[in-house]
Design brief:
- It is an enzyme of class 2 (transferase).
- Its EC number is 2.5.1.54.
- By secondary structure, the protein is of the alpha/beta class.
- The chain has 2 domains: 63 residues, Alpha-Beta Plaits; 255 residues, Aldolase class I (TIM Barrel, Alpha-Beta Barrel), CATH 3.20.20.
- 34% of the residues lie in helices and 19% in strands.
- The protein contains 11 helices and 15 strands.
- The strands form 3 sheets. Strands 7-8-9-10-11-12-13-14 form an 8-stranded parallel β-barrel, surrounded by 7 helices.
- α8 links the parallel β12 and β13.
- α3 runs parallel beside α4, α6 crosses α7 and α10 packs parallel to α11.
- It is elongated.
Length: 345
């Protein structure tokens, strides 16, 4: 349920309602606006008697049952967009952030080269996989902890925060030691133990949509992270499986405006996995931003033809630079911007 406090309610009134929410066994989530304070009470569906109980409190203006099955992700609980910030940039609420780098960490030289040029061309976060969940058990699985150490060195040298994938609950503590953002990939989007462990990590989480998930199912997976008290969550549309075979997946561009009408969380696009071919990545990236995406996560490699994973979809440096020029040209027309851009290396 959503508890709307009376205009002018102060800290003492807010705390008294929060205490009552906890007393009856619900979890409070406070959202303070300029004129109104909202308190989401998260738990089982309230009875009519409980709704009336809270309406009778002196500081309460009204109480509204939350109709959505996802609670903490809904705009009913947090009507203002969530904005996540790092020293290099921000995402949400009109701020756009670009994460870029190789699909997999393969060496220190490869990762540092990519980190330096994505920073030079305006990316504000470095992506790179140290653990790689692959369809085939015989494919490159990543460098593990050595890959995490390489990413940490790239962050030290460039100042870029890093996002990297975690593939099991047992890895969360290790990956969180190195990463600024924990990525949960499409294949693990309904791995509920992993979602909960990532939510408890204290790190921001990037959740990719499963290739066969509905948007409601996607938000229910997000709820597992949020329910751990971690509101630092980015949703990523990365393409869904359809009958079309010309692209690796079908990018559901419509998911962006739909999700943004349902949730306060930042919504990103992964054009690389959707396209499966580097020549189409920029077009999909621009389409996602035009639809309202708050960020992009893009694969780029210094020598894509030598990449040990997803070689066909990784941009060259020149292609990445071209994409960033087009992103910069597009965003002002959309009333959005890349923030706190780093100086060229």
């Amino acid at each position: 349920m959503l508890i709307i406090l009376k205009h002018g309610s102060g800290p003492q009134e807010i705390e008294s309602v929060v205490a009552e929410v906890r007393r009856v066994g619900y979890r409070p989530h406070v959202s303070e606006g300029k004129h109104t304070t909202l308190i989401g009470a998260i738990g089982k569906g309230p009875t009519p008697e409980l709704l009336d109980h809270f309406r009778a409190l002196s500081a309460v203006q009204d109480v509204i049952p939350i109709s959505k099955p996802y609670k903490l992700a809904s705009l009913e609980v947090s009507p203002k967009p969530t904005v996540l910030r790092w020293n290099s940039g921000a995402t949400g609420g009109g701020e756009v952030l670009i994460a870029a780098g190789p699909c997999g960490v393969e060496s220190l030289e490869q990762t540092l080269t990519a980190a330096r040029y994505v920073k030079k061309h305006g990316a504000q976060m470095l992506r790179g996989g140290a653990f790689k969940p692959r369809t085939s058990p015989y494919s490159f699985q990543g460098m593990g902890q050595e890959g995490l150490e390489i990413l940490a060195e790239a962050r030290r040298q460039t100042g870029l925060p890093i996002v990297t994938e975690v593939v099991s609950p047992e890895q969360v503590d290790l990956v969180a030691t190195y990463a600024d953002v924990l990525q949960i990939g499409a294949r693990n989007a309904q791995n509920f133990a992993l979602l909960q462990a990532a939510g408890r990590s204290g790190r921001a989480v990037m959740l990719k949509r499963g290739m066969s998930m509905t948007l409601e199912e996607f938000l229910m997976s997000a709820e597992y992270v949020l329910a751990q008290g971690n509101m630092q969550l980015i949703l990523v549309e990365r393409g869904i499986r359809t009958f079309e075979k010309s692209t690796r997946f079908t990018l559901d561009v419509s998911a962006v405006p739909v999700l943004k009408s349902w949730t306060h969380l930042p919504v990103w696009i992964d054009p690389s996995h959707a396209a499966g071919k580097r020549d189409w990545v920029t077009s999909l990236a621009l389409a996602g931003l035009a639809a309202g995406a708050d960020g992009l996560i893009v694969e780029t490699h210094p020598e894509p033809e030598k990449a040990q994973s997803d070689a066909a979809q990784q941009l060259t440096e020149s292609q990445f630079a071209d994409m960033m020029r087009k992103v910069r040209a597009l965003l002002p027309a959309l009333g959005r911007r890349l923030t706190q851009e780093l100086e060229p290396a």
